Amino acid sequence: LAMAGPEPPTLPRSLADEYVFEAAESEPQAPPPPAAFRGPNQPSPGMQFSLGPVGGYFKPHGADHGSWFVGVQARVRLLQFFALEVSATWNETEYQSGDVDVTQYPVQVSGLIYPFPSWLLSPYLVAGGGWYYSKVDYSGAQAATPDSTDRTFGAHGGIGADFKRGNFVLDADLRYIFLDPTSNHLRKGDFNFWQATLGVNFTF
Fold first, then answer.
1. Quick check: 104 and 93 in contact, CB under 8 A?
2. pTM over 0.85, yes/no
3. For 19-42, what is each residue's pLDDT tens digit?
4. In the predicted model, what is the mean pLDDT of the chain?
5. Selection from 72, 180, 99 nearest residue 132 by Cα
6. Potential cystine with 77: which of 2, 83, 116, 168 (Cβ 3.0-4.6 Å)?
7. How far from the centroid of its chain's Cα atoms is residue 135's Cα?
8. Statement: residue 72 has pLDDT above 80
9. Which letter, b or e, does each residue of 98-135 get, where b requires 16 or more Cβ atoms within 10 Å of its Cβ?
10. End-to-end CA distance of the chain
């Protein structure tokens, strides 16, 4: 019987094989693809949408008393320090001892700038414009004046702050509204006013 000789020595790997093997062991995992390639169901990490009810109080110059308003607002946080807001509300205000009743449906579009976006209670500056549809009803001593409607553009600016906890965002701000009615009956009055707003939004 032939005697089995010693096992042949293991041949060394070539330099190319050794390089490929070491590169495969040390190669880090590829980073996730950019947000634009993650599919339509995954929004950009910097963008955040929130929606909820909004309300507040205001008193135009010449009004018999202050008025409350209610509505809904939506915000989109486009950047860490900038957001867009759209709100639609309803209010009713009386003038001249109730003889003039103005029902208004404002739609506001605003830009919000956050100087300190990382703060838990984050202040912001707000500015924008709005479209104000108003129905004016006359009665009593003004009954001879025909009812009318008015479509007015108004600008606004102010300051505020919001507080976020999980998916819950509470915001409050103070805005000054500049209105210039187009109706001849309304142009005689000063309808500018301060508006205090409180909103409760839920992020999605």
1. yes
2. no
3. 555 555 555 565 655 544 444 444
4. 83
5. 180
6. 83
7. 28
8. yes
9. ebbbbebebebebebebeeeeeeebebebebebebebe
10. 81
Decide: residue 201, CB within 10 A, 0-12 exposed, 13-18 middle, 19+ buried.
buried
- For residue 38, the model assigns a pLDDT of 45
**Which of 125, 126, 137, 58 has the alpha carbon at shortest distance from 90?**
58
Using alpha carbons, list the distances in angstroms from residue 184 to 63, 74, 148, 188, 192. Answer: 18, 34, 10, 7, 17
CA dist 110 → 34, 59, 85, 175, 176 (Å): 30, 21, 5, 11, 13
Please give the structure tokens belonging to residue 191: 């309808």
Residues making up the chain, counted from first to last? 204
> What separation in angstroms does the CA of 165 have from each of 121, 122, 131, 182?
10, 12, 32, 43
Structure tokens of 171?
A: 């915001």
Q: Per-residue confidence at 110, pLDDT binned at 50, 70, 90?
A: very high
Which has the closest alpha carbon to 177: 72, 104, 96? 104
CA-CA-CA-CA dihedral for 97, 58, 199, 181, to nearest 10: 90
- How many other C-beta atoms lie within 10 A of the C-beta of residue 171? 24
Chain position carrying tokens 């989109």? 76
CB atoms within 10 A of CB 169: 20
pLDDT given at position 47: 85
